[in-house]
Amino acid sequence: MTALFALATSLLWGLADFGGGLMTRRAPALTVVVVSQAVAVVVLGAVVVATGGWSEAGSQLWFAVAAGAVGPVAMLCFYKALALGPMGVVSPLGSVGVAVPVTVGLVLGERPGLLQFAGIAVAVAGVVLASGPQLRGAPVQRQAIVLTLVAAVGFGAVLALIAEASTTLTGLFLALFVQRVTNVAVGGAALYVSVKRGAKALPENGGMRVILSSLPALAFVGLADVAANGTYSIAAQTGPVTVAAVLANLYPVVTVLCALVLLKERLRAVQAAGAGLAVVGTVLLAAG
């Protein structure tokens, strides 16, 4: 059950990242984040009301607030690092955030078996390679490395926090709603500051018309991200966090394969090898 929900998480996050990446070609990244998360807030709000999720409110919701505050900061650091580049180094380096929830699981007393330890090592190596690491070429700015590591820790912290935010299904809906509200608040504040400094909130060509015509795609990105957080929370509660976190972090493989199939991008040899290693690691984790 843990492996199934964790793999569903990687699929959903991979699709959300692919969709979000496409949308940032048409609109500013911060606008994509805020609008997609705002759509998720509306849908989750309706779900919480329909399921009576308000009755699950308690101190554990602070974990959801923390996850909602950390997420946009990590995302902004990651986007900034990608802008500084090279992407071939920044992207795979961002996957080291899996170390955070894995460490939390080990501290809490989880002890994966030998096969699972091997699976963790192989899967993480596969994710890094599948992201297409740039092994030569332009030097990497120190600032890009620092920002990427901050983002990676932030992404890992979100995984650890959301896993602690609820213990029931209705409570999970409420926790995800609180997380998204916080996401929108923090992201909206960052967007406001960005605009005050002269950045554009809307696409230069098309303006609001582009945003409105893209609402279905933005809704998909936001809801896929929400669903991924939900399936990860279930995976972490039904089995070892160390296993759930690694399997959930296979999402770069999904993003790469989407680019291969839908955008006809060519898969580099190192990426093909990484995808293969990720599959082998998944099998070892599930078998363990």
Describe this structure in words.
With 288 residues, the chain is mostly helical. It has one domain (2-287). It is 77% helix and 0% strand. The chain is built from 13 helices and no strands. It has helices at 2-23, 29-51, 61-84, 87-93, 99-107, 114-130, 142-163, 169-196, 208-213, 215-238, 241-248, 251-262, 269-287. α3 runs antiparallel to α7 (142-163). The model has no long low-confidence stretch (mean pLDDT 79). Belongs to the EamA transporter family. It holds the Pfam family EamA. Keywords: Membrane, Transmembrane, Transmembrane helix. The chain crosses the membrane at residues 28-49, 61-82, 114-132, 144-163, 169-195, 207-228, 240-262, 269-287. Residues 3-131, 144-285 form the EamA domain.
Summary keywords:
288 residues; mainly alpha; 13 helices; 0% strand; globular; transmembrane helix; membrane
Task: Detail the topology: elements first, then pairings.
Blueprint: H1 2-23, H2 29-51, H3 61-84, H4 87-93, H5 99-107, H6 114-130, H7 142-163, H8 169-196, H9 208-213, H10 215-238, H11 241-248, H12 251-262, H13 269-287
Write a concise synopsis of the structure shown:
It holds the Pfam family EamA. By secondary structure, the chain is mostly helical. The chain has one domain.
Low-confidence stretches: none
Give the number of DSSP strands.
0
| Tally of helical runs | 13
Estimated share of beta-strand residues = under 5%
- Tally of individual domains: 1
End-to-end CA span? 13 Å
Helix/sheet category: mainly alpha
Q: What are the secondary-structure elements, in order, as H or E?
A: HHHHHHHHHHHHH
Shape, per Cα inertia axes: globular
Largest sheet geometry: none
What is the average of the pLDDT values?
Answer: 79
Helix percent band: over 70%
Task: Calculate Rg over CA atoms.
Answer: 18 Å
